[in-house]
Each structure stands twice: as C-alpha cells, then as structure tokens.
Design goal:
This protein has 284 residues and is α/β, with parallel strands linked by helices. It is built from 10 helices and 8 strands. The chain has an 8-stranded parallel β-barrel, surrounded by 4 helices. The two termini are 22 Å apart. Bound molecules: flavin-adenine dinucleotide (FAD).
Length: 284
C-alpha cells in the first residue's frame, strides 16, 4: 500500500468544555501529520466568528495547514469576500467552498441571496479573484438531494473544477461500491482532481440515520442490523464502529484511495485508531 494521506474535520466549539475537547483532539491528531485539518462553518454562516477564532488559533498555535469552510448562503458577495480577505490576511490559504444548506433547513427549497454567490462554483470563482487560495469543494457519491441525477451533479462538480477547485471531499457514505462507481463516472467526465472520501465513523446511530435521510446518504441494511440495538451501549458501539470504519477504509485503500478525510466530530479516538490501522503513524 502506498503511504496514505489523511485530513481531519472539526467544528467550532460552543462551550469551554467543547473547546477543551477540540484542543485535546487537535493535539492528539496533529502528530499524524495530516495534509490539512478543516473547520466547518455553521448553517447559514451562524458560526462565522467561532469558525474564524478556531481557524486562527490552529494557525497561530500549530504547524497544521487549516482549511476554513465557507458558505455563501444568506450573505452578499461583499460579506463573503470580506471573510475571504480576512482569512487570507490571517494566513489561511485553503478554503472549503460550499453553497450551504437553505436557511429553512435541509430539504427546504434553496434561494440564493439576491446579491450573493448563487452556488459553490460561483464562490470558488470569487475566491480565486481575491487570492490564490487552495480550494476544496464538496461532492456527492449518491448525488446531492437538490440534483435531478448523478450526471447533473457531476456537471456541477465540473463547474466547480473549471472555476478553480483542486480537490473534492465527499459526503459520507457507507457503501464503497457507490463511491467507486461515482469516482469512475467523475473520471469519465474528464475531472481529474482528487476525489477524497469523507469517512464518518458511526457514533449515535439514531442521529446518523436522521442526518443520512436529510443528506440523501444510504445506510446499508447490514449497518442497520449491526447498530440498531447499540445506542445505549456506547462501549460496544465504539468497538463495532471502529471495525466497520476500518473495513471501509481498508477496502477503499485496496481500490486505490490514497487520501481519507475523517469527520471527527471533534473526537480523536476513532480517527486516531483508523489512522493507526491504515498505517498512518505519528511523525515525531
Ligand atoms: P453546490 O455544489 O453549489 O450545489 C449543490 C447541488 O445543488 C448541485 O449538485 C446541484 O444539484 C444543485 N445546484 C446548485 N446550484 C445549481 C445551479 N445553478 N444549477 C443546477 N443545479 C444547481 N454546510 C455548511 O453549512 N457548513 C459546512 O461547513 C459544510 N461543510 C461541508 C463539507 C463537505 C465535505 C460537504 C460534502 C458538505 C458540507 N456542507 C456544509 C453541506 C453543504 O453546504 C450542502 O450539502 C449544500 O446543500 C450544498 O453545498 P455544495 O457546496 O455542495 O453546493
């Protein structure tokens, strides 16, 4: 197996306790030398300040490359451009450019802000005009719920790449075949940027099922059988979750995947264990 690359996604913490947990996780995962760590942007830009603070602290206190998520929902171009300029000035050279979900919640119809960027492709182009950011974007192996078909969805990805995106990070998925077929179709469409699988180890199965329903991600029957009785048994669930995610990652690695993006939910334990099983060890 060639040396594998990893990246970790965090969210901006709300409370001092959550902040402590995030920093413990950053400190534990940093020696694994991820390609980058990313920090999410709350729905509708609701964590603008906290995302900025978290990103700035990681830039200031670690050697990690940080990718700041940024959405264009419910904001004018000028507001989004100001955030981009602030990031560049603060030493943040990598963004994850996203449209964002509708302010009414996932599943509601999306209407772009009249004076804003309409989608992630426009945001990518706008960011490129401001500074030579590295730009990652989202992609959807099971298609985005707003997209009429996988082909339309891949067209949208192509527009993001044409606008300057250099990496796509996928929505989480649990059926590797779906991801691998999607990757083939993306390559068939002439898109050659890295398509990095987003790996979401199972924490609360109830919560995951709800979120997967909203995002259009399928939970295979096999997983339902494995996890359905474990929500009140966190110890066993954790062991099963590690095994399931390790199987998923190892199979993807056998199929040529060389970079994994872990949705950590600000916890280091499963992400660290998975890296270990993939042969990613601390670079002291
Ligand atoms: P886009 O790529 O702009 O569009 C998504 C889909 O909408 C397209 O595939 C297409 O079907 C349709 N569409 C949009 N515009 C058009 C058009 N002009 N013509 C035709 N079809 C169109 N959300 C947050 O709020 N904060 C985050 O930090 C965050 N991080 C994420 C990280 C990753 C890796 C991923 C995959 C998603 C993340 N999201 C986040 C969720 C994301 O904001 C939603 O999935 C959102 O609904 C779509 O964003 P996008 O950038 O993929 O949109």
């Amino acid at each position: 197996m060639p040396p594998l690359h990893v990246s970790f996604e965090f969210f901006p913490p709300k409370t001092p306790e959550m902040n402590d947990r995030l920093w413990r996780s950053v400190e534990k995962l940093a020696p694994l030398a991820p390609d980058f760590v990313s920090v999410t942007y709350g729905a509708g830009g609701s964590t603008r300040e906290r995302t900025h603070q978290t990103v700035s602290r990681i830039v200031g206190e670690t050697d990690l490359e940080v990718a700041a998520h940024l959405t264009c929902v419910a904001a004018t171009r000028a507001e989004v451009d100001a955030v981009l300029r602030d990031y560049w000035a603060a030493g943040v050279k990598h963004i994850v450019a996203l449209r964002g979900d509708p302010p009414g919640g996932i599943g509601e119809p999306y209407a772009p802000h009249p004076g804003g960027y309409a989608n992630a492709a426009e945001l990518t182009a706008g960011a490129r005009e401001i500074a030579p950011f590295e730009i990652s974007v989202g992609c959807y192996p099971e298609k985005h719920p707003d997209s009429p078909s996988v082909a339309d969805d891949i067209d949208m990805l192509k527009r993001k790449v044409d606008a300057g995106a250099t990496r796509a990070i996928s929505q989480f998925f649990y059926d590797n075949e779906v991801f691998l077929r999607y990757r083939d179709r993306v390559r068939g469409a002439g898109i050659d940027i890295p398509i990095v699988p987003g790996v979401m180890p199972v924490t609360s199965f109830k919560g995951l099922t709800r979120m997967a329903g909203l995002c259009g991600a399928t939970i295979p029957e096999r997983l339902v059988r494995l996890f359905q009785s474990l929500d009140d048994d966190p110890g066993t669930r954790q062991l099963v979750a590690a095994t399931v995610a390790a199987e998923q990652c190892l199979e993807l690695a056998e199929n040529g995947v060389e970079h994994f993006h872990f949705y950590t939910l600000n916890r280091d334990d499963l992400a660290y264990a998975l890296c270990h099983m993939l042969g990613v060890r601390p670079k002291s």
